[in-house]
Amino acid sequence: MAFIEQPTSSGKSIVFIHGRGWKPPEQALAALWTGALRTGLERDFGKDEGAPTLENTTLMTAYYGDLTNAARAAAGQTYDEALDLADLGNALTSMSALESAKKFRRAGYEALPGRSSIKEFLADIGAPLLSTLGLTEVALAQRMPELSAYWDRKGAFCRETTGRVLAQLRTALGRGDQVMVISHCLGSIIAYDCLWELARNSPASSGKIDTWITLGSPLGDEFVKRRLSGADQRGDKRYPNNIVNWFNVAAEDDFTCHDETLANDFRSMLENHLISRIKDYRIYNLAVRYGRSNPHTSIGYLIHPRVARLVADWL
Length: 315
Description:
Elements: E1 2-5, E2 12-17, H1 26-45, E3 58-62, H2 65-74, H3 81-96, H4 106-110, H5 118-133, H6 136-143, H7 145-150, H8 156-174, E4 178-184, H9 186-201, E5 209-215, H10 222-225, E6 243-251, H11 267-271, E7 277-283, E8 288-289, E9 292-293, H12 298-302, H13 305-314
Parallel strand pairs: 2-3, 2-4, 4-5, 5-6, 6-7
Antiparallel strand pairs: 1-3, 8-9
Helix pairs in contact: 1-3, 1-13, 8-9
C-alpha cells in the first residue's frame, strides 16, 4: 500500500516512512504528517511567493500501518482508531497554534503536563542490561511486537514492510528525482535496511538519496546495530553507499532514541567516503498525547523548527 500525493513535479520527491505502534488509515496518517510539515514551513518561512513550499514536490508515504496493527492485535493489544485520530488532531492543533519558533525551546517543553525523563533513563540503563541477560527479545515481543516480528528476517512482516518501502524508494529514484527520505522510529531501521539492499543489490546507476532525515531513531542502540543489514560485513560493504546527507533529529526524553547521536556510530561511512555528511540535532518535542507530554510523537518532530529548516534548505 502506498499513498502518493503527486502535483506538477519539480523534480523533487519526499518519501515518508512511519514508525511502530498503532496507526490510523494511510491517507489519514499522510495528512497528519504533511499537515505538520507544512505548518512548520509556513510558520517559519511564510506563504509569500518564493517561500519554501511542498506544493510542487511529490510526497510519497510508504505505509505499513496495517501490518503493525495486525502484529499488536495478535499480541492481545487493542486500538481505538477514532480516539487516536482525535487525539493526534488535538496535538497537531495545539502545536500549530504556536506562532513562533522560539516557543519550541526548553521553557516551552518544561511547561508541558506530565513531562518526565524516567523512560529515557530506564532505556539508558535497561538496554545494556537486558542485552546482557538475553532478555531483549522477550521484552520486545511483549512491548513492541512489530519490532520483534521485524527481526524475523524470513517472516511475512519483514518481507512485507521492506517490500513496500523498497517499492517507494525505487519509484522515486526511478523518476530521476532529487529524493529526501523522512523516517521515524522503526521506519528508520527499515529505511536503513532498504537503502543497504538497494546499494548492494541494485545497479550503480540506480541513484542516491540526496537527504535522509531520521526522527526519534533507535539506530544508535547496540542491540539494533547488531541486527542491521550488513552488520556481518566488513569495510565499506557493511554500510549503504547511496546517501549523500544524513540528518538525525532526537528529542529530549525520547526513550526510543536514548542514544541520540548517530554520527559517532556510523562515522566509518564518512571515513570510507560512503556519505558526505552525518549530523545530529537535539530538540524539544512539544507533542502532548492524552494530556501528557509524549516526546516521541512523529508530528511533534515534523512540526519542529529544526525539521522545517532542514526541509526548507533542501527545497
